[in-house]
Design goal:
This is Protein takeout. It comes from Megalurothrips usitatus (bean blossom thrips). Belongs to the TO family. One of its GO terms (biological process) is circadian rhythm. Keywords: Biological rhythms, Signal. It is a single chain. The chain is elongated. With 252 residues, it is of the alpha+beta class. It has helices at residues 38-55, 199-211, 213-240, 245-248; strands spanning 2-6, 69-78, 83-95, 100-107, 114-120, 124-136, 139-152, 155-167, 170-183, 186-191. The longest helix has 28 residues, at 213-240. 31% of the residues are buried. The protein contains 4 helices and 10 strands, in the order βαβββββββββααα. 25% of the residues lie in helices and 41% in strands. Strands 1-2-3-6-7-10 form a 6-stranded antiparallel sheet, covered by helices on one side. It starts with a strand and ends with a helix.
């Protein structure tokens, strides 16, 4: 599989502000490195920060509300296998991040590496535009129009790694890798205007796609995960470029 993610603008997520030190938002939790319950503190702090950014964003950090979260373009070129398609998503909005609950989370106080497993307590929705050409299992498919995806009982596995950067007397984190794997118990799909608007063929194909959504998910999941992972990496860097690490994780 080949896929291309183009984030032309984080229109629903970020503003273009220069990196400068700001105070930790009042609602965000501070976790001391010598706290015997550091991991528990980190899980709660991470959960609070995500929900805060989803609901209202944080202007001082250059982050607007991230629910919905916009991805401007995602292209998938799957040339072989049971799902052989050229699929382009445009202006896709991810809705539902505000319902995130961190099930597990860990934080390394030396490297600042972070991992988490996150449950979304309500369905996630992806809505936008699409163009598709190719074949799904035994059937040809083509179309261009609006699309919607619904993910039941979604979960996320997140990893974040970075390098420490000194600016003056302060140390910041530059996020170099942000892994984001999106999974779901059931994927529901609906594509409008399939087969040049032929409703009978379009309804048949949508039914077929939903009956075989496990196969479709296998092909879509890596690209969607990488696409939104790139967006969250950008957001994470906006946060950590403005907050010195000792303001978030003081020694004691």
């Amino acid at each position: 599989m080949k896929y291309l993610v183009l984030i032309v603008a984080l229109a629903a997520a970020c503003s273009l502000t220069l990196a400068k030190t700001v105070k930790l938002p009042a609602k965000w939790k501070i976790c001391k490195k010598n706290d015997p319950k550091l991991q528990e503190c980190f899980k709660q702090a991470a959960n609070d920060a995500v929900v805060s950014l989803a609901d209202g964003g944080e202007q001082s950090l250059g982050v607007f509300p991230v629910d919905p979260l916009r991805m401007t373009k995602l292209s998938i070129d799957q040339g072989s296998g049971p799902v052989s398609i050229d699929l382009e998503f445009r202006n896709m909005d991810l809705k539902g991040i505000k319902h995130a609950v961190f099930r597990e989370a860990s934080f390394d106080p030396k490297t600042y590496d972070m991992t988490a497993t996150v449950d979304i307590k309500q369905p996630l929705y992806l809505d936008g535009d699409y163009t598709i050409r190719g074949r799904v299992l035994v059937l040809p498919i083509n179309g261009d129009g609006k699309c919607s995806l619904k993910l039941d009982e979604p979960s996320l596995k997140v990893t974040q790694r970075g390098v420490l950067v000194k600016r003056g007397a302060e140390t910041y984190l530059n996020v170099t890798d942000f892994g984001f794997v999106l999974d779901t118990k059931k994927l529901h799909l609906h594509f409008e205007n399939l087969f040049n608007g032929n409703k009978e063929l379009g309804n048949t194909m949508n039914t077929f796609l939903n009956q075989n959504s496990d196969e479709v998910l296998k092909e879509l999941k890596p690209a969607i995960s990488d696409g939104f992972g790139a967006v969250f990496k950008e957001i994470s860097n906006r946060v950590f470029s403005k907050l010195p690490l000792d303001k978030i994780f003081p020694e004691k």
